[in-house]
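Run folding on both entries below.
>entry_1
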Amino acid sequence: MKAVVLKEYGGVDNLLYEDVETPRPGEGEILVKVSSASVNPIDWKLRSGALQEVFPLEFPAILGRDLAGEVAAFGGGVSGFAVGQRVMALTNHTYAEYAIVKAKDIAPIPDGLSFEQAAALPLVVLTGAQLIESGLKLRPGQSVLLTGSVGSVGRSAAFVAAQHGLQVIAVVRGSQLAEAESLGTLGLVAAEDEQGLSTFKEIDGVADTVGGTVALRMLKHLHPGGVFASVLGVPKEAAHYDLRAERIMVQPDAARLFELAEDVAKGRFKIPTAKVFQLSEIRKAHQLGEAGGAGGKIVLVP
């Protein structure tokens, strides 16, 4: 099969599109014929070596966390799936024509979603959901400052927070205010608008998807005993505040993935796609994603 192989840390030129052996499913595993995958920030951070102290790669490595495709074969002990069934998953090694997935991590693709639409979802919708449901754990009616609200993880978090009856104030760049109006949040403020932010006091929780100085500036808006949850780590300055701090590291959850994918299929929220590349164009895909500002998910097709 064809796959994108990384043999050492570095730039996009280290991503090699070449032939590798097709994997075989083991006990409790499914071989999926990949119809679409997608690119996420974790991919270029792994490629570059920026995360090697936390997530070291074993070379040669195949990157990729999202996939949508068809069941091709089963390992032992697998039931409830059929060859040719349309499926999606948060897994690993998806920059390839075939990938192995644990059966427990696979969700059917809801009717109404294409492979390309489905492949854009697993990592971002599960990260957004777990940020709210596992990180914040707030009660209906409580207030949340959500940073990076128009990003794919932010959109997912905004939708899930609304499902739980939370009062969400979307924090975005000033240039994104018009786009963020479609989120339907209770409030909306530019991250650089100190005066606007100052109107939000005694907030119950911060859900952070951007990190850095923006995350740091949110700390002072929490009431004592509030919660700061982030997908990018907790600022060391949080130790100076009376709060509960949570870092979210996304985990596969096939049932929740299917629920959220159904919500997308029914138009309840949207994860925009910026561009579709051939898998052989992986270097261009990484360059676009790493440059920032793509305006949505970058999808790959074999």
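>entry_2
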Amino acid sequence: MHGPAIGQNQHAYDRLREAGATQPLETAQDLSRRVAALMEPDQCAEMAAAGWEAVSEGAEVTDRLVEITLQKLGLGEAQQ
């Protein structure tokens, strides 16, 4: 859950929202209603799984880019 002030992180929040891993809050009533809903184990588990999937997507590509960058900087394992 998050409020409307997300700064420069709009893309990340949009991605999580589309995956069902976050919910924007607009009013104080939204907060109490959504906290109550998330106390249900199935709701909490669904959002957690969706969040994990959303942030894990592309992890292999990110790991490979980090590896290549470290190699180029001379900080990684020798190139094969």
